[in-house]
Design brief:
94 residues
Length: 94
């Protein structure tokens, strides 16, 4: 089941949080919210950056504010350190 955790949006359940106060609270959120946050991450980091090249100004502004708010949440939850920790402990390394 661990190798499919990215597909089933359950990777967040398989690693320990880095012990910061906000990260601990984010880790304690319900599983449905964690899955929703994984889907939001996929949407914000994959298709929305292409809106920066849109000729429509409102789409570029939407892309900007979605990216900025996304990285503010990452900073609050200390998620970037957690991702680095996850990649270091990943099974992908040979």
């Amino acid at each position: 089941m661990r190798q499919y955790s990215y597909i089933y949006l359950t990777k967040m359940a398989y690693f320990q949080c880095i012990p910061t106060p906000a990260a601990w609270y984010f880790h304690q959120l319900p599983e449905w919210f964690q899955k929703l946050s994984v889907v939001a991450t996929y949407l914000i980091e994959i298709p929305i950056p292409f809106l920066f090249f849109s000729p429509v100004r409102s789409q570029r502004i939407f892309a900007f504010y979605s990216q900025v708010s996304f990285y503010h949440v990452h900073t609050l939850s200390d998620f970037l350190r957690t991702v680095i920790y996850m990649l270091k402990k990943s099974d992908w390394q040979h």
